[in-house]
Write a structure and sequence with these properties.
Layout (H helix, E strand, L loop, with lengths): L1 E4 L6 H9 L4 H11 L3 H5 L4 E7 L2 E9 L12 E7 L9 H14 L4 E6 L11 E7 L5 E8 L2
Parallel strand pairs: 4-5
Antiparallel strand pairs: 1-2, 2-3, 3-4, 5-7, 6-7
Helix pairs in contact: 1-2
């Protein structure tokens, strides 16, 4: 297994088709943003999509972005669009993506990473701690988690 960056990979069209196979509304939205070349305009020019792959199989993906669904806010960066295909769930494969994101954050001298979610018990396994409730762009309350990176 390896983590690849959608924007640096040699077959973005192939991986875009794999993202489209997700059975999640937000995954379909990510697919639309990428296929219409609107992702960076929406989430920030330094933002990217990381994918955990095994040969030609997409296992999991997420974004590492300047912005997320909590707007406006000064908090940055965000992990978003976190998805693992059903057949791969329960193995903590997501941790591979988070390790890569933490490396990126360290290289940028960033010490806090945020996640907006309504899941309880998922991100805590990876060292994220509840930070506060904030409203998303639709005005709905969302749990914001934070991880401090040394």
């Amino acid at each position: 297994m390896q983590v690849i960056d959608y924007y640096k990979c040699d077959r973005p069209e192939y991986w875009l088709r794999q993202i489209k196979k997700s059975d999640w509304r937000a995954g379909q939205f990510l697919y639309e943003l990428l296929s219409e070349n609107k992702f960076k305009n929406t989430f920030g020019e330094k933002s990217t999509v990381l994918m955990l792959v095994n040969d030609d199989e997409l296992i999991s993906f997420c974004t590492y972005a300047e912005k997320d669904d909590i707007q406006p806010t000064i908090l940055t960066p965000w992990i978003g669009f976190v998805y693992t295909f059903p057949e791969y769930r329960g193995h903590r494969y997501l941790g591979n993506l988070f390790v890569e994101i933490e490396k990126l954050a360290k290289a940028e001298n960033i010490h806090n990473i945020f996640i907006s979610t309504n899941h309880i018990g998922l991100y805590e396994k990876y060292g994220y701690e509840f930070y506060q409730i904030m409203n998303d762009m639709e005005g709905e309350p969302s749990r914001v988690y934070r991880k401090y990176i040394d």
